[in-house]
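Researcher: We're reviewing a set of sequences before deciding which ones to prioritize for further study. For each one, I'd like a predicted 3D structure that I can look through quickly. This is Protein kinase domain-containing protein. If possible, include the structure in token form so it fits the rest of the review sheet.
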Amino acid sequence: TLGCECLIKVFGETVKGSLVMELLTNIVTFADPPSLDSCSRDVYKPEAPMKPKEAVYMVSKLLDALEKLHSNGVCHGDFYGHNILVKSEGSFSVKLTDFGAAFLYDKSSQYGRLIERIEMRAFGHLVDEVNILAQRSGLDDTESISAHQLLSEIGEICASATTEVSFAQLQNKLGGKLSTFHNFK
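Model: Here's the predicted structure for Protein kinase domain-containing protein, in token form for your review sheet.
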């Protein structure tokens, strides 16, 4: 689990090679997979807006997970909303799942930087989608406006073709801003 609450805990392996993982209850997929209409974009339910604080919290936890993975030379390889599980009953939580396309890579190789950059781009797309869902909440208090601005900033950093930023650098840059939204759990 790399010490990250956003990654599903693996407790062990059976003698036949099956994994024993934590049991998740009252949890749903964050998005549906792409449809023929959406082509390559996940499908979000229009009636399911997110609270802006939840949106920032979710992005923060996913950033933490991606930083942990990439700092250990692991690329998720399929970072989309339909591979994210959320629990909104009780305390809000998020889990990054489906590592079927994950692979190990050498961060120091000539391609290491590019691999992380590709996943950073996918993260940026998700941040933009999460921000749209948060804007649907209609909340316009100071904290919600700050959340939208922060999500927009993150999305712009991730999408910039001229910015070469790693997940660790992004996390360091935004750490203080993100932590102010962690108190709602």
